[in-house]
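Revision sheet: structure tokens.
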Amino acid sequence: MKLSLFSILSAILLLEITPSAMALNPVVNKLHGRAETTQLENLFGGSVAATDKWVVVGEPSNDDLGQDAGAVHVYSAVTGRYLRQLVGAEVAGGFEFGYSVAVCGDTAVVGAPNDNAGGVTSGAVYVFNLRNGRQLLRIEAETPIASSQYGRSVAISHDHILVGAPQPGSGTGRAYLVDRVTGEELWEITAADAASGDRFAWSVALCGNLGMVGAPLGDSDTVVNCGSAYLFDLAGQAQLYECNADDATANTGYGSAISLGGGCAVIGAPRDGEGGNEAGAAYVVELISGAELRKLISAEAADFCRFGNAVSISGAMVLIGENQSSVPYDPDDEPLSKIGSALLFDLYTGAELQRFVASDADFGDEFGTAVALSGDLVAIGSPFDDDIEMDCGSVYLWRGLSSVRPFTTLAKVGDFAPGAPETDFRYFGQPLLPVGLATSFEAGLMGPGSHGNRDKGVWGELDGTRKLVSSNRDLGSLGAEWDGIMVNSTLGITTASSYTAVTVSLKGTGVTGANNRAVLRTYPNLATVAFARTGDSPAVLNGTQLATFQDVVGFAAGGGIGIPCILKNGVGGVNAGNNSGVYATGVFERFLREGDGFATSQLRQFFGRFAGHTSGAFGTFGAHHVPDGEVAARQGLFNFLSNTSASDSILVSQNDPEPDNSAQSFRSFLGESKGLLNDTAIKATVSGAGVNGSNNEGLWLTSGPSLVPGVREGQEPDPVNLPGVVYSRVLKYWAVNSGAIAHVLLRGKGVNGANDGALVHVSSMTGDSVIFLREGDPVCDGDGPRIRAFQRIEVERTSRKYAVVASLTGAASKNQALLMGNLAPADPALWAPSMKLRKGTLFQAPGGDTTRLRSIDFRPVIDRTGSGANGGDQVMSFSGKAIMCLNFDNRVKELVTMILIP
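Predicted:
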């Protein structure tokens, strides 16, 4: 029968597997088990796990060690070559060793749910070193329970193993958290609403310190036996939430299969009836909230297909088994019953990408019973395949699967530059995501029209890419005073609310060294406007003249900016003693200058920096000042609005007491960051009793009119969990709503070069600090990487979303990733990031060849003081959209945007 149907089903295979996700010439292998006894009904492929290095296949009815003792086989993921068999030292007949398998790095965990050492079918799990096949551990419940089937489901991630035992107490079920190295049982897990018959722990999944447990007969508040999935904080040993299908109905099997990845959980419901009686479904759930994002159903859903019986997430895709599906091979005959299939979906859009069907399928093979997706590798189990003997089983292995592109390309190096004839993009400079829909980016040019590759400019993208400003642009449209003046070069960009402010050098009629700088406001489809120009004397300057722009910072909604500046000496009474100030323009105009009265002080020399928020009303500047009634100048930080002096205030002054210790006082102010609602983070040094070089610097936060301590060198961030570990240095910082986020270095007990970098959130309301990410932390992927070092960090200050490009441990071909997290949830257990993009991922260009991602060029804007996203200069928006440059092995460089939230 198989031979007669080979050509028909091969055609099906070729039609179903489309170029959207496959390499041009994918390699397909078929794997079989090895046995010393008959392979009759061995069910090889009943479970499968895979990484980029290993493919591990369970054969739970292998008879080599006794009838249905079980076995596990290991293959190379690179070549498909058979490597070795894993054998548990205590395995005996009936144990079904290999019923479940999981892999992380070079470690495999194998479930034997019918192991009877602790009682009939009490169960056990075995841990192996995959490099040599050596058994490392045998683990059973501390208190074994007969018929519990401990090991029916297993998951492993770095330091932990999660074991499911779904049947104790008439099927109430338990899951067990186990130390991967020692085998110590850390936590026996039950659901908060545990009930008899729920089958809690029928499935388990693990990602870092988060574990999810399925209960396919669990109850919602309104529907009995609809199925549930529970998320647990494994570090804090607490249940975070329970989720049920939004359209929950009884007996759908919701929770029968679970996979975690990419900030999502995919939960199988193989008996769901929307597409037909027990056609099946799978649900995509946002991990940090438990909110259902979408329901996935096979495009060819039919009765009894059981779509959702197995699920596996990798990167931006999810593979879903449908092991009971049937395929008609002749219109006049019955379909091939239960041959099975597996379907690949875009995790973030829900688009069905392709269907896998075995080319040699036959009745009852149940292809898709087990599925594993790892990078560009797909492994699909077909445990009732009859190649060698009846129901001996097999696994199909596809290599060369290209990922869906989870990003949108704005431009590529070598593309023509819109609005600049006879030029192409030569490189990309700083990109930005202003408030609103438009993006902007700097780029250098090449080609005959680029004046020897010297020209550069700024482009915006809204409903297409358009030039905003570039070298040699005629600025006559700005007004008569600009006739004959052109842009010489673009010098930098900044966010001005939804606009982009471009600083340029000028050339042309009347341009000299005294008036050759300007700041222009731009936006796609709108006319360019001049914000400011050196040599100008706006009315608010009272006869003085702008000489130097020290910075340009977004400030106030509607497109305002703040410009720390120097005035021209000799004009309007300006001299070296009164020539510094801050010029606010764009929405309202205000000029603050040394010598002016401000609040209860006289301003002296300004620091030449400014902190603002592109959607916030207040700005902060630093200057020396002389308080009323005093003669000596001291440093100070000041708050102001651009349209009134009524809210002028002094935030803090040199010699003011440190909030927690009146014997210490502020000595100098090193930098500032401004949040949306006047939240301010201040980097400063202190002096006084007990202060030395190891504890004299820190970060302080505003809490209403007061300052509160944030991060202080020498302070313990977590005395309970990290005793003896202290802050060593504040590297970067961002003011966020009601607090701050800081990139810090640690020192002390157990700290070394592999784990000294950390991200910490400090609340200005409570003073609590939480280290939510640290170098050395695990990253959820099959090869078990950890964060080696933070390379780039961005924080969206209003929403408290963050993105990190980090180097990873492991193979050089995969040692970089983009991670994204969100501090909005109330429980810090949900603040850990998910991986959104990884070096080495295989992509296929539209209409082109496949190539691998070589590097991620992410460019958050950090000023010279360490303040991040000052004025709204950000490469990640409130909605979680990010902009970056991706470099590929084929030397293509693409500027892309990417939505980092599910």
